[in-house]
């Protein structure tokens, strides 16, 4: 007896919902102004003018929007700025997450180097930094960078509100319907034609 091959049933496509990155979540991931100053002073890094970065980016986006005013309609301007601000916020959030991982690695390396029984974590020869020190310095650099990008994102968010007149929210795709797909509906209509 011959078996017929059954084609596997296609299941509905499930689109995983991705939590949108808000400016509030980004602020939690990045060092604030006081923490950035403390990092800079502790590691001998330049102290950034966070307010200057924020104001510059706000002016930049407001002026860009003004130059596009005649060419874009109100809705097109909103969509355009939505994307630009989303890119700034996403960049700052990614930098904040990277900074958090760098801090964790620096803490782990510092804790390991404090243990006298571990030979592999001891400091390098005189005049050279040990692995824990390099990780701390790397985390400090990442903290200053994350703070700078946060300030740029906050400027972009403020510009959006100034130009559009409402608070910026991350774009969220509308939920897909779980009903039959267009292909399935078309196939059903074609099969109905056969009677």
Question: What's the structural blueprint in terms of helices and strands?
Answer:
Elements: H1 23-29, H2 33-43, H3 50-68, H4 74-113, H5 131-164, H6 182-193
Helix pairs in contact: 1-4, 2-5, 3-5, 4-5
Integer tally of domains: 1
**Number of DSSP helical runs:** 6
Strand proportion, as a percent range, falls in: under 5%
Structural class by secondary-structure content: mainly alpha
The ordered H/E elements are: HHHHHH
Mean pLDDT equals: 82
Q: How does the major sheet shape up?
A: none
Protein name: ArgG
Organism: Bosea lupini
How would you describe this structure to a colleague?
- The protein is an all-alpha fold.
- It has one domain (23-170).
- 63% of the residues lie in helices and 0% in strands.
- The chain is built from 6 helices and no strands.
- Helix 1 (23-29) runs parallel beside helix 4 and helix 2 runs antiparallel to helix 5.
- It is flat, with a radius of gyration of 26 Å.
- The model has no long low-confidence stretch (mean pLDDT 82).
């Amino acid at each position: 007896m011959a078996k017929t091959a059954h084609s596997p049933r296609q299941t509905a496509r499930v689109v995983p919902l991705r939590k949108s990155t808000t400016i509030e979540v980004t602020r939690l991931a990045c060092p604030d102004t006081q923490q950035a100053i403390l990092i800079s002073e502790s590691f001998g890094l330049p102290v950034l003018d966070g307010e200057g970065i924020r104001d510059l980016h706000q002016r930049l986006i407001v002026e860009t929007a003004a130059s596009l005013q005649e060419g874009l309609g109100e809705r097109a301007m909103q969509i355009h700025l939505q994307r630009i601000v989303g890119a700034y916020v996403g960049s700052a959030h990614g930098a904040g997450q990277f900074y958090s991982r760098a801090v964790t690695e620096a803490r782990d390396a510092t804790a390991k180097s404090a243990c006298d029984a571990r030979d592999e974590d001891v400091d390098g020869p005189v005049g050279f930094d040990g692995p824990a020190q390099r990780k701390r310095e790397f985390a400090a650099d990442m903290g200053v960078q994350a703070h700078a990008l946060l300030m740029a994102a906050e400027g972009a968010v403020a510009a959006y509100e100034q130009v559009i007149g409402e608070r910026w929210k991350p774009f969220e795709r509308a939920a897909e319907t779980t009903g039959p797909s267009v292909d399935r509906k078309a196939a059903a209509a074609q099969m109905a034609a056969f009677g």
